[in-house]
Amino acid sequence: MMRLLLSLLLFLAAPAWAQEERIVAGMSQNRVAIDATFVGSEILLFGAVKRETPIPDSPLGVVIVIEGPEETVTVRRKERQFGIWVNTDAVAVRDAPAFYAIATSGRFDYVLSEEENRDRLVSIEETVQVIENAEVDDAEAFADALIRIREKEGLYSLAEDSVFLDQSTLFSTSVQLPSNVVEGLYTAHIYLTREGKVVSNHVSYVSVRKVGLERWVFNLAHERPLIYGLLSLAIAGFFGWAASTLFRFVFRN
Amino acid sequence: MQVYLPIAEVSVNVFLLFGLGGLVGILSGMFGVGGGFLMTPLLFFIGIPPAVAVATGTNQIVASSVSGVLAHLKRKTVDLRMGWVLLVGGLIGALLGVQLFTYLRSIGQVDLLVTLCYVVFLGIIGFLMLVESTRAILRNRRATAPKRRRHNWVHALPFKMKFRTSGLYISVIPPILVGLSVGVLAAIMGVGGGFIMVPAMIYILGMPTKVVVGTSLFQIIFVAAFTTVMHAYENQTVDIGLAILLILGGVIGAQLGARIGLRIKAEQTRILLALLVVGVCLNLAVGLLIEPSELYSLGQEG
Predict the structure, then answer these.
(1) Average pLDDT, stretch A119-128?
(2) Calpha distance A246→B254 (Å, rounded)
(3) Which entry of A158, A170, B81, B296 is 20 to 30 Å from B44 by CA?
(4) Which domain of life is it from (chain A) (predicted)?
């Protein structure tokens, strides 16, 4: 939310020359349906730079960020106590996105300047921040651990040089959503940069939802938990009985 | 073939789950354990979130226990009277266990305590069983008939009751206490508790090995059913999709296991179960002692 307001503010405050180049963008899909056969999904992002003036001399950079819904995550650290490894310190990391994929048209720190990155919270490290915690003195390590674990699970990624730029006008990239993504509204930010400065940006949304049977089961489990629990039992009991009966029948013949 | 699980929110291979269910089902049918103490760690291993693995595991235990009990009922190897007495204790214990679990979670460290519970109980039981069954086999080799009925403190208590199927005339207090303590542990550890129940029935209550398996399964059905509904109601972590896949493999396995169990001698059954229990225990203990490659772990707030 903060980021949305911030970018709106920046958009309004930006002088007219900054908008000489505008982004016209599209996506292969703006909703991802999670059904029983869902194994992940690939989103194709593409677009063009619209301009009324000649192409400036400085090279064009594109940064594309797809971000999942934010949640608070507790990160725990193990320590050896009495000879065994035990969870000791815990730090709550607020506003950690469930998914965060960055694709750029060149080296990240070359395409986007340090100041711009800090102002707009683009890189993973800028996005995942810990609140100051009195109990531990190395809270940063917990944020780093969160990033490391999520990168390993394919939920956070930085893919440099993966946005293809054609004649400084057309760009495209594809982002892989793994099968362990969570539901929610995902945002796709596109930043156009020159010499590390953002000259234009564009936001669009992707909705990731469960559908069909998956939706029904999920809703039932959360809205009618008792009925759901009894239903699970009934199914279990039925299968147990059916298998036993079937086997007796098979063995008798 | 991959399938997406609605509650666990991950995509897994259908045949992998089917095979896992089948393997645990065979063990369940052979030894009269629900198999939860194997199933739960295996589900962690293939990437199912721990909370979902524990809750769904109990649901699968219901199915394989029902299937196993029906096979045992046919052969009249279930002491129903003993089963009901154990169940009274078991349900009270499960209720207490769930309260204890909630309390442990509120002070953190629940994972550690669950693992410690596993290591301690699996270790003690596995070791005792291993010693006892090895001795029994050696005794049989020397062809001396084992002494069956031993008189111990169990026989000195009041409220005696006749358990004809088991051939016992003992007080109801020990079975209720056994049921109760297994119930508490079952709820904390998220398993049916058969691996504790079976040895307790043999060594504390002195029941014949033949009826132990069926009676344990009978009791486990109700304790696991109760735990499943509690998990579904309190935490919404029972995944029907995952449960069905595990059950399909599990019930078939349980039927096969019950028939395999008939073919091998009681002492051999016991030594195999003992080896299995010790193996799982050592595996978990090593996990506690060796420095993990990732010291940090993620959890949801709350």
Answers:
(1) 83
(2) 13
(3) A158
(4) Bacteria
The separation between the first and the last C-alpha atoms of chain B, rounded to the nearest angstrom, is: 35
Whether A29 and A104 share a structural domain: yes
Q: Positive or negative, the Cα torsion across A173, A179, A185, A186?
A: negative
Picking from A144, A94, A153, A154, the residue whose alpha carbon sits closest to that of residue A124 is: A144
Decide if A236 and B59 are in contact by the 8 Å CB cutoff. yes
User: What does the pLDDT read at residue A19?
Assistant: 57
Chain A residues in contact with B107 (beta carbon < 8 A): none
**What are all long-range contacts of A79-83, with beta carbons under 8 Å and residues at least 24 apart?**
A79/B295, A80/B291, A83/B289
How many Å apart are CA A180 and CA A40, to the nearest integer? 8
What is the tally of structural domains in chain A? Answer: 2
Write down the pLDDT at residue B145. 47
What token pair was written down for A195?
């010499």
What pLDDT, on the 0 to 100 scale, is given for residue A16? Answer: 46
* Mean pLDDT on A193-219: 87
Shared domain check, A82 and A45: yes
B236 neighbourhood in chain A, CB within 8 Å: 221-222, 225, 228
Q: What is the pLDDT of residue B32?
A: 62
CB of A206 closer than 8 Å to CB of A67: no
Q: Is the dihedral of CA B154, B159, B163, B169 positive or negative?
A: positive
Distance from CA of A186 to the nearest CA of B (A): 17
How many contiguous H segments (helices) and E segments (strands) does chain B have? 10, 5
Burial zone of B66 (CB within 10 Å; 0-12 exposed, 13-18 middle, 19+ buried): buried
pLDDT digits (tens, 9 = 90+) for B290-300: 777 777 877 66
Mean of the per-residue pLDDT values of chain A: 83
Inspect the interface and report whether the beta carbons of B251 and A240 lie closer than 8 Å: yes
Best mutation target, B12, B295, B300, to test chain A (most A CBs within 10 A): B295
Which residues form the domain of A173?
2-210
Residues A182 and A239 placed together within one structural domain of the fold:
no
- Residue A139 has phi, psi (to 5 degrees) of -55, -30
Give the chain B residue whose CA is nearest to the CA of A226: B233
Residue type, A99: F
Distance from the Cα of A117 to chain B's closest Cα (Å) equals 26
Q: Residues A175, A181, A185, A191: is their CA dihedral positive or negative?
A: negative
Contact assignment for A218 to B288 by CB distance below 8 Å: no
Co-location of A191 and A241 in the same domain = no
Q: Which segments within chain A are labelled E, that is strand?
A: 21-27, 31-34, 41-51, 60-67, 70-81, 84-97, 100-104, 156-159, 164-166, 170-177, 184-194, 197-210
ipTM confidence: 0.74
Residue from B106, B117, B292 nearest A77 by CA: B292
CB B147 within 8 A of CB A126: no
DSSP, collapsed to helix, strand or coil, labels residue B215 as helix
CATH number at residue A42: 2.60.40.3880
Q: Do B233 and A87 touch (CB under 8 A)?
A: no
* The residue to which tokens 């204890």 are assigned: B100
B194's tokens: 């058969």
